[in-house]
């Protein structure tokens, strides 16, 4: 059984770190990966699943018994995307969507470019930076509401901690003005 090619689809053999017992793996410029059985010549399209970062991959077992992850974006870029120099070691998704592995969306970048890209992607996805690094769980309007409830005594600290996903210690610091001291209670 042969996999039907998509329009203008080109396949290239994937270089594995060690041999596979019974299959050869191929990647296409349309971001698909297939295996071909060495003995029967049957072709199978691999099902990709997102990893914990959202990159699509399939896991195979090599002849040495070790698992190997076939990340689509890495193999598409290695085989079809122009790599300007050896300093361009990392691959980015231009539209910040890690499951979009089209050729026009992949780009080789340097480590410095990658650091800038990470910041851009965080901002594009709504990340808010604060002075101590990372991001705050709470927004200013939520803190204002919390302060209103703490002042009125209508809600317990346990209720507020559960509702806003913060610790009781954080609520006590908000109440004392140690954290979010610049935010006034909501009216």
What features would you describe in this structure?
With 187 residues, the chain is an alpha+beta fold. The protein has 2 domains: 11-124, Homing Intron 3 (I-Ppo) Encoded Endonuclease, Chain A (Alpha-Beta Complex); 140-176. Helices cover 28% and strands 20% of the residues. It is built from 5 helices and 9 strands; from the N terminus they run βββββββαββαααα. The strands form 3 sheets. Strands 1-2-3-4 form a 4-stranded antiparallel beta sheet. It has a 3-stranded antiparallel beta sheet with strand order 5-6-7. A two-stranded antiparallel sheet has the order 8-9. The longest helix has 14 residues, at 111-124. The protein starts with 10 loop residues before the first strand and ends in an 11-residue tail after the last helix.
Shape: elongated
Strand order of the largest sheet: 1-2-3-4
CATH level-3 fold name of the largest domain:
Homing Intron 3 (I-Ppo) Encoded Endonuclease, Chain A
Mean pLDDT equals 91
Continuous helix count: 5
Coarse structural class:
alpha+beta
* Name of the CATH architecture of the largest domain: Alpha-Beta Complex
In angstroms, what is the radius of gyration?
A: 25 Å
Number of extended strands: 9
CATH class of the largest domain: Alpha Beta
User: How far apart, in Å, are the first and last alpha carbons?
Assistant: 69 Å
Major sheet characteristics: 4 strands, antiparallel
Helix content: 25-40%
What's the arrangement of secondary structure elements?
Layout (H helix, E strand, L loop, with lengths): L10 E3 L9 E6 L4 E5 L5 E3 L3 E2 L5 E6 L5 E5 H9 L9 E4 L12 E4 L1 H14 L15 H13 L4 H8 L3 H9 L11
Antiparallel strand pairs: 1-2, 2-3, 3-4, 5-6, 6-7, 8-9
